[in-house]
Amino acid sequence: MVIAERKPIEEILAMVADFKKVLLVGCKGCVTVCCAGGTKEVGILGSALRIARKKAGNPLALVEHTLERQCDPEYIEQLAPMLENGEFDAVLSMACSVGPQFIAKRYLKQVFPALNTTFIGGSLEHGVWAEFCQSCGNCIIHNFGGLCPISRCSKSLMNGPCGGSSGGKCEVSNEIDCVWQLIYDRMTALGQVDRMRKIFPIKDWSTSRDGGPRKITREDLKL
Amino acid sequence: MKAGSNLEKVLTSGHFAITGELGPPRGANADVVRKKAEFLRDKVDSINITDNQTSVVRMSSIAVSRIVIEMGLEPNAQMTCRDRNRIAIQSDLLGASALGIKNVLCLSGDHNKFGDHPQCKNVFDLDSMQLIMTLKHMRDEGKVLGGQELDGVPKFFIGAAANPFGDPFDFRVTRLAKKVEAGVDFVQTQCIYNMDKFRTFMKQAVDQGLTEKFHMLAGITPLKSLGMARYMAKFVPGLEVPDYYLKRLQGVEKKKQADEGIKIAVEQIQEMKETPGVAGVHLMAIEWEHRSPEIIEAAGLLPRPKLD
Ligand code: SF4
Ligand code: SF4
Fold first, then answer.
1. Sorting pLDDT into bands at 50, 70 and 90, what band is B235?
2. Looking at beta carbons, which residues of chain A come within 8 Å of B86?
3. Same domain as A89, residue A23
4. Is residue A201 in some structural domain?
5. Are residues A109 and A180 in the same domain?
6. Domain for residue A44, yes or no?
7. Is residue A168 one of the residues assigned to a domain?
């Protein structure tokens, strides 16, 4: 899923400093699961903003609302009663960065992102998330024991570990596991370490962002 | 001859080769390059010119290589995958060849996080293996990766790096084998201090018949001081400095540590000469270019062969 984290409160306060009436919109999708922008986080941020603005002598009228999803126009439409009557002068979205863009597309309002959309990943343990995919658009992980060197190797190497791999850690940081050590261990365990001798050819990045912004059209689903 | 570089001639004629290294300056002053390179005249067969090493902005390796050529010396231009995509890489290679550069060393490159611009975007369109394949493709097929014919084919003696001490150790020879298969002509290793482990690595390479297909140059970096040795042992990922060298440096007074470091380097070079599969050494005395001649002299590698 999409992993995001909330921007620092100071940054959010600075964004909305000139606005008096703000609609704070959460999302029940990925950002609820990764505890960044669900109903609960909307409540916490809403209170923090109100208190800070009150303290600063510049009170903020803020309404909280959480949508089912913000990456679907159908749900964005539900904001119409609130956003089409001048009740609010800005929207603060707590969805991944698709949300604020969808809101901005539909309504002529100033929209701010409250989160930093960080990566496609999963949770390692309670409170810890890590990156697992860079959406290169042509998945090749079966060549690497099911692990992704594109997103998980700091240099996206496709032919084995660089010289900096040390004690299972990446040269970039002790906090990062060297995915090539993990690939080697797994291929060894699977009895397939010989396959690592094969040169992985030059990758076609045109399916990635390098080919321009991407779009999927499914004729079978179009109405 | 693949490229006809001096390094290629020395290696193919069976001489024990020695290459040096020059770190380009942070600035546009070509005299700095000339001064450093002059120390290596008639002392080495080719001089590696680093490519923004440790991700710090420096004068371009290709430009510095050309300055070195104009001095009548031979460069080995290093090229990393960190800063260029395949368009820039191929374009730079064509330019390098047109400027007379015949040796190119293919590297992944240190991660940008270590340098003076950690905020930059990195590229890594190709990895070092694929970079080797790109050079070979251009040289042997006379085409760019996209398939179009080249008018003027770049002839390179293709180099790569190897770190015998990176993890997982058991994979290191396999990775070397892949580089050989990709088309490498010579390999220069990371600096070696753990000789036992290096011999184990070399034995595997020899046993697999790899060293018949390329020339192996063992990396030597003189330890300037105990402080430097400790720093390298502790902070440089994938580098091992055994205790006995640390103890040796510790055993002499501070002023004499540099001399002791040089002694160690000379001994290592002599050991390398006896190590099966090793075709030469690569002396990386960065910011210590002026002390390279005495090391090379003491190791008995002078005079260098002059080949046509
Ligand atoms: S190979 Fe591409 S699609 Fe597959 S996990 Fe890695 S980045 Fe994602
Ligand atoms: S240490 Fe491992 S993860 Fe880090 S850049 Fe090198 S190969 Fe990739």
1. confident
2. 202
3. yes
4. yes
5. no
6. yes
7. yes
Burial B124-146 (b: 16+ CB within 10 A, else e): bbbbbbbbbbbbbbbbeeeebbe
pLDDT tens digits, A135-155: 999 999 999 999 999 999 999
Within chain A, how many helices (H) and strands (E) appear?
8, 9
| pLDDT tens digit sequence for B111-155 | 999 999 999 999 999 999 999 999 999 999 999 999 999 999 999
> In sequence order, what E strands does chain B have?
17-22, 46-49, 75-80, 103-107, 157-162, 186-191, 215-220, 278-283
pTM over 0.90: yes
What is the DSSP track for B64-121?
A: HHHHHHHTT--EEEEEESSS--HHHHHHHHHHHHHTT--EEEEE----GGGSS-TTSP
Distance CA B174, CA B154 (A): 29
Write the CATH number for A96.
3.40.50.2300
Tell me how many domains chain A contains: 2
State the ligand closest to the CA atom of B238: 2
Ligand 1 pocket, residue A110 CB under 6 Å: no
As its CATH architecture, domain B6-298 has Alpha-Beta Barrel (3.20)
Residue nearest to atom 6 of ligand 2 (CA): A162
- Whole-angstrom distance, CA of residue B240 vs CA of residue B164: 10
Instruction: Assess whether A14 and A106 both reside in one domain.
Output: yes
Same domain, A27 and A98: yes
Question: What range does the domain containing A172 cover?
Answer: 134-206
Q: Is the ipTM of this complex over 0.90?
A: yes
Q: Which two tokens stand for residue A33?
A: 């699961």
- Domain assignment present for residue A126? The answer is no
Within a 10 A sphere around the Cβ of B260, how many other Cβ atoms?
Answer: 20
Q: What is the pLDDT of residues A125-138, one digit of tens each?
A: 999 999 999 999 99
Q: What is the pLDDT of residues B192-209, one digit of tens each?
A: 999 999 999 999 999 999
| Same domain? A162 vs A58 | no
Give chain B's mean pLDDT.
96
pLDDT averaged over chain A? Answer: 97
Alpha-carbon distance of A111 to A106, in angstroms, equals 11
Q: Are residues A114 and A140 in the same domain?
A: no
Going by CA atoms, what residue is nearest to atom 2 of ligand 2?
A178
Q: Is the CB of A183 under 6 A from ligand 2?
A: no
B129 and A200 within 8 Å at the Cβ level: the answer is yes
Looking at the fold, whether A159 and A108 belong to one and the same domain comes out as no
Asked if A114 and A7 touch (Cβ cutoff 8 Å), the reply is yes
The response to whether residue A180 sits with its C-beta less than 6 Å from ligand 2 reads: yes
